[in-house]
Amino acid sequence: MLGQIDPRLPFWVAAGLSLLNAMYGLFVLPESLPPERRERFQWRRANPVGSLRLLRSHAELLGLAAVSFATNIAHEALPTTFVLYAMYRYGWNERTVGLAIATVGVCSAIVGAGLVPPVVRRFGDRRVLLAGLLFGVLGFSIYGLAATGIVFWIGVPVNSLWGLSAPPMQGLMTRRVSESEQGQLQGALSSLRGIAFMIGPILFTTVFASFIGGRRDWHLPGAPYLLAAMLLGFSMLVAWRVTQSGETQSGAMQSGSTEPTDASQLEPADFATLAEKGIS
Q1: C-alpha to C-alpha distance for 133 and 116, rounded to whole angstroms
Q2: Are 48 and 191 a contacting pair, CB within 8 Å?
Q3: Contact 55/61 with Cβ under 8 angstroms?
Q4: Residue 177: count of CB within 10 angstroms of its CB
Q5: Cα separation of 188 and 50, whole Å?
Q6: Rounded distance, CA 54 to CA 178, Å?
Q7: By the 8 A CB rule, do 248 and 153 touch?
Q8: Which helix (H) or strand (E) holds 203?
Q9: Nearest Cα to Cα of residue 186 among 49, 52, 83, 43
Q10: Which domains does the chain have, with CATH numbers?
Q11: Angle at alpha carbon of residue 130, lines to 66 and 175, rounded to 5°
Q12: If 0-12 CB within 10 Å is exposed, 13-18 middle and 19+ buried, where does residue 96 land?
């Protein structure tokens, strides 16, 4: 809508919103890490490579980092090709494309704010992570195979449930580092996101161009979304494998109980107890 007024206006509005966000963080949000728990600054960790070394400190952490990296690449399938895809395959105009993207945002907001907390409390981080990735596979598959715009719209709420996977994945990762390493972990994940955001646009636009031109038997406009579905399927398998040990270990925490307990039910002190007992 702003672009119809002036092509530059959306960027100025985005800059203003970014400034408001920064001011809110500077003047409103409290510092979560007290001085006594902060780690001494070291230049060797103040770079992308240094922060990425943290991800190798735990097998589950490294595996979940790989999941995060693959899902970030898959995420780029929609923003980099959707406008071209929707206009090419469904003949949508700019306004319809904008409405579709806005609907994706609304559905994602509903999932993130309304569904994630109760679902994670009910089913635990690991199950919600795997379920969210599965919904992502289904959603992108619908996008890629949708012969009509109506079928594509059906995939929007399905794909939005992919948003269930990010918070529990983040929670599982933060439990594998100390309090003083939380910021370093976020830096490492930001580095992975940056790399993924360089790969995704080139990858998916190349795939899209390759499958709509040339030979007739290669004509598959939805190829970028099917590739994204494959990436999420791979991520789901990796997540299922690397989180198995964490689920078993959290069950061992319960004294006198042989039933596995989800890690989301444990307190930080419980993990300290595990460490003292020599359970890595």
Answers
A1: 14
A2: yes
A3: yes
A4: 18
A5: 8
A6: 11
A7: no
A8: helix 182-212
A9: 52
A10: 45-243 (1.20.1250.20)
A11: 60
A12: middle
Q: Note down pLDDT in tens along the chain; length 280 residues.
A: 787 788 899 999 999 999 999 999 999 998 877 887 777 777 766 666 666 677 777 778 888 889 999 999 999 999 999 999 999 999 998 888 889 999 999 999 999 888 888 998 899 889 999 999 999 999 999 999 999 999 999 999 999 999 999 889 988 888 887 777 777 788 888 888 999 999 999 999 999 998 987 666 678 899 999 999 999 999 999 999 988 865 534 443 333 333 334 444 444 444 444 444 444 3
| Token pair of 197 as six digits | 């955001």
Q: In Å, how far are 174, 182, 187, 219 from 27, measured between CA atoms? A: 26, 22, 22, 53
DSSP three-state, residue 266: coil
Closest CA to 32 of 179, 176, 171: 179
Sign of CA dihedral 200, 206, 211, 212: positive
